[in-house]
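Supplementary Note 2. Why include the ligand at all?

Several targets in our set were suspected to adopt different conformations when bound, so apo predictions alone were not considered sufficient. For every target with a known small-molecule partner we therefore ran a joint prediction. The input for calcium ion is given below.
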Amino acid sequence: MKRERILIVEDEQAVARGLEYALKAEGFEVYWARTGMQALDLMRREQPDLITLDLRLPDVSGYDVCRALRGEAHRQPILMLTAKDEELDKVLGLELGADDYVVKPYSLREVISRIRALLRRAYGELAVQAEDEIQRFNGLEIDLTRLEVRRDGVVIDLTPTEYRLLRYLSARVNVPVSRSGLLEAIWGYESDVNSDRTVDVHIRHLRQKIERDPANPRQIVTVRGVGYKFQG
Ligand code: CA
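The joint prediction is reproduced in token form.
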């Protein structure tokens, strides 16, 4: 089996080494970039399968790196390592498009389980999906063949996570899905105190993109005390 390749973007050598050691022990191939510029360079050259991205770097910020990668259409999962979770909204948002985050100080076990989950959903379920079908709901089209979503014929630019979230909900029309159910299905791990926010932030962004009136969502509605459901 091909070994999956992880790019660690981290300026602190001790932190990077710890992560590198743990990842190699898990069988991953590891690249290390100390600066944002090195990270972009390595991404273009090596095309690793996943990036762990520290926000505080000596040259440009992790935000800039993330934006630049998405701007260059690199679609690999990005796991942000953030110091504060107030930045969560921005990190997971439209602007940056990271897939998940871990707040420092983190446990290596936690980071590795997030990495495994991200790789599984990025290269597992989506890769084998080959249904020839378009779902249609009041002007919203979910094209399962082209992995594309359109509103009134106009393509909506969703992040891979947003697409999976929408796809999961729209496969269960009118069925309430709990936040923990979504977490397990989309992110691949069990819920904890912070993780419900991850779901809520992604739902909010998804609504901003697909709803005609995001303030009064008609497609993805909140089910009080449960989570969300997709209305057909
Ligand atoms: Ca740093």
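The longest strand covers residues 5-9. Confidence is low (pLDDT under 50) at residues 126-131. Comparable summaries for the other entries are listed in the accompanying table.
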